[in-house]
Amino acid sequence: MTESASTPFPLSTPDDDDLVDLADIESSPGGGRDILRGLAQPTTGELQLNERASLQRVAGLSTELTDVTEVEYRQLRLERVVLVGVWTEGSAAQARASMVELAALAETAGSEVLDALIQRRSRPDSSTYIGSGKADELREAVLTSGADTVICDGELTPAQLTALEKIVKVKVIDRTALILDIFAQHATSREGKAQVSLAQMEYMLPRLRGWGESMSRQAGGRAGSNGGVGLRGPGETKIETDRRRIRERMAKLRREIRGMKKSRTVMRAARERNAIPRLTVAGYTNAGKSSLVNAMTGSGVLVQDALFATLDPTTRRATLDDGRAVVFTDTVGFVRHLPTQLVEAFRSTLEEVVDADLVLHVVDGSDAFPAEQISAVRQVINEVVADEGVAPPPELLVVNKIDAIDATRMAELRGALGDAAFVSARTGEGLPELFDRIREFIGRSDVELTIDVPYTRGDLVSRIHEEGEVLSSEHTADGTRMRVRVPAAFAGALEELTAP
Ligand SMILES: Nc1nc2c(ncn2[C@@H]2O[C@H](COP(=O)(O)OP(=O)(O)OP(=O)(O)O)[C@@H](O)[C@H]2O)c(=O)[nH]1
Ligand SMILES: [Mg+2]
């Protein structure tokens, strides 16, 4: 065993992005050095294409020989990928749609999709996900296309991942890891980043496989952390160290997230005091949620033809044409099989949904299977609702992108989703009706509050009398202190006057 103190190699630093550690190779008792010769280069995608291709043809070479921690390895940018799916139920068109979505997800993650294979089976193979014959075919596809990664359209067990990697001899990841990767790339806020890291580690923990276990390699030569997920320390097998470090870091992240959540709860409480109706815009990824918020509020929320363009909830105020104020919150999109780790991590974000006065559930009307999107979204909402032990928020279904569908399709959708509002965030069609529906909904609830109305605001006083009720009033030096009962939406307009 090599003591870290005696190593001639420098400790890693946070910006050390060499994922292959020479020190470890040299200290490998199993003589890993020979096998690793070709890999003692950064593997972050800077390998020349021919080098990469040649790597794949070395017999018996598998990614398990790469000396990076599992977490680092899984976080490498995906580059050239082959997709593979198991079609267990539903129509051929649905199976295809699932693969098309997987391709869109892969591209969102920054990879180039070279090939896609799908296998019809009653259920995924317990040992290799796809059947062994298909696995050989997959290996061929990987070789001919020069892919460096295989992405499976499902959640694989750690054993399945390992077994499949042994056959195809390139990195294999599953849908869950892919979605986690996208979230990791897109998260911008401190809280979002912390949540994603936590989710990634949670996913990774049971999947640490102890690469090089067969060589009973012990870590040496590198202690301390590298950019947060450097996970080696002296005197333990690498996998033990990895696990311990990950757990420590997860605990730290959980503490941090709890702190951030507290300040948001305070913000939310302030909003509640103001009684401005809160409308949360939720729905499947790429359904047009941000576009709808923009169309309804005239603001510039990021819109992109990419999955998961929005990760952090964005709140925008809008005034309905009767002067009632509302707050729209744009939220992270949902996707089929949203990793449970993410549901967990984004719980506080999802609580925004559960917490709303009204959820505008946006559906892409131009998608081939809107019903599936709807149930995927409802499933996540129900999960959060069940855990919180609260009543589900009222929902208004909004079918978007009606500019992109023909009359026949429109009639079908109206038949199936009669209660929905039909809009186009792009052309503005249907928005007035949507506003009517919103107004009708929020008019149902009245609130009581105490306000200080300056003498100059006689207009407000008459409106309160018209639309609400004055419970008591008392004249002061600069105005009238009033206890009033008004529609919740009107309370928003009185926000600045709320008495301390
Ligand atoms: N044809 C058409 N396209 C739309 C409409 N609304 C949005 N889009 C397009 O759909 C894509 C996604 O729009 P976004 O508003 O970013 O969707 P989102 O639901 O916020 O997506 P995420 O934040 O990634 O989950 C963009 O390319 C928009 O231009 C619409 O009414 N009609
Ligand atoms: Mg968005």
From TrEMBL:
Start and end residues of each Hflx-type G domain: 277-446
Ranges for region Disordered: 216-236
Ranges of compositional bias, category Gly residues: 221-233
Major site of localization recorded for this protein: cytoplasm
A Pfam family of this chain: GTP-bdg_M
Subcellular location(s) of the protein: Cytoplasm
Keywords, in A-Z order: Coiled coil, Cytoplasm, GTP-binding, Magnesium, Metal-binding, Nucleotide-binding
Residue stretches in coiled coil: 236-263
InterPro entries: G_HFLX_dom (IPR030394), GTP-bd (IPR006073), GTP-bd_M (IPR032305), GTPase_HflX (IPR016496), GTPase_HflX_N (IPR025121), GTPase_HflX_N_sf (IPR042108), P-loop_NTPase (IPR027417)
Family statement: Belongs to the TRAFAC class OBG-HflX-like GTPase superfamily. HflX GTPase family.
HAMAP family named among the record's database cross-references: GTPase_HflX (MF_00900)
Task performed by this protein: GTPase that associates with the 50S ribosomal subunit and may have a role during protein synthesis or ribosome biogenesis.
NCBIfam families: GTP_HflX (TIGR03156)
Subunit record text: Monomer. Associates with the 50S ribosomal subunit.
Protein name according to UniProt: GTPase HflX
Organism phylogeny: Bacteria, Bacillati, Actinomycetota, Actinomycetes, Mycobacteriales
Gene: hflX
